[in-house]
Amino acid sequence: MTSLLEIRDLHKRYGTVEVLKGVDCSMRQGEVISIIGSSGSGKTTMLRCINMLEEFQGGTIAIDGQEIGYETADGVRRRKPEREIARQRALTGMAFQQFNLFPHMTAAANVMLGLVKVKKMSRDEARALAEKWLDRVGLLSRKDHYPGQLSGGQQQRVAIARAIAMNPKLMLFDEVTSALDPELVNEVLQVIKALAEDGMSMLIVTHEMRFAYEVSSRVIFMNQGRIGEEGNPREMFLKPKTERLAEFLKTSAFN
């Protein structure tokens, strides 16, 4: 089966600090991969490279066979034109730690915006699709509410609906529960779990170990800018092969 995502020898630096040190990763359509690891291990940076929110200095990323962000001609690596990068960025949807909703727009209007501006849908088409996805995340009854009238968990669910409505090939979740009060975490995790059960392809950076164990088809443990270990959740969590992963799990909430 052709890979949906192929990362080869990915290197990312901030000045003289190398954050990603030669990451290799493949992902098939329909997989759910959770990325775990200590703060500063490169998890979020890898996601941001995949959708070109960050430039990277070496290696290649391909989504659905398309090399993302750069092209090499005559041995020279060049950044692709911004219009092409914007088109490629639409291959992925991303939900962030912060919800990034427009406060002056209703939940429905937030979801509709990209559909109208980027997908060029009519407002009627966009509204129907927005309402479909708001219903899917349990918020159809709040479609006309503004972000300030919604809880943090509800705002995050609107943000997820907005990303998925754009019909990306791959969804990226970056610590989407870390800004939420503990009692609101589960409602967001349940939405992601339901999407996983529907077969959506997802890369999930998370510190929710029990969730990663339950929802993932595969887990990647990042350690100091490299993949320290990867495998199926049962093996990773119950029989870690490396001492570093065993130490990390001892200090995590997994039990």
From TrEMBL:
Its placement in the membrane is given as: Peripheral membrane protein
Give the source's domain of life in one word.
Bacteria
This entry's Gene Ontology molecular function terms read: ABC-type amino acid transporter activity; ATP binding; ATP hydrolysis activity
**Localization per record:** Cell membrane
One GO CC term on file: plasma membrane
State the Gene3D superfamilies in the record: P-loop containing nucleotide triphosphate hydrolases
What InterPro entries does the record tag this protein with? AAA+_ATPase (IPR003593), ABC_ATPase_HisP-typ (IPR030679), ABC_transporter-like_ATP-bd (IPR003439), ABC_transporter-like_CS (IPR017871), MetN_ABC_transporter-like (IPR050086), P-loop_NTPase (IPR027417)
This protein's UniProt keywords: Amino-acid transport, ATP-binding, Cell membrane, Membrane, Nucleotide-binding, Transport
User: Taking every annotated instance into account, which residue ranges of this chain make up the domain ABC transporter?
Assistant: 5-249
- SUPFAM superfamilies under this entry? P-loop containing nucleoside triphosphate hydrolases
Protein family: Belongs to the ABC transporter superfamily.
* PANTHER family registered for this protein in UniProt: AMINO ACID IMPORT ATP-BINDING PROTEIN (PTHR43166), GLUTAMATE_ASPARTATE IMPORT ATP-BINDING PROTEIN GLTL (PTHR43166:SF9)
State the name under which the record lists this protein. Answer: ATP-binding cassette domain-containing protein
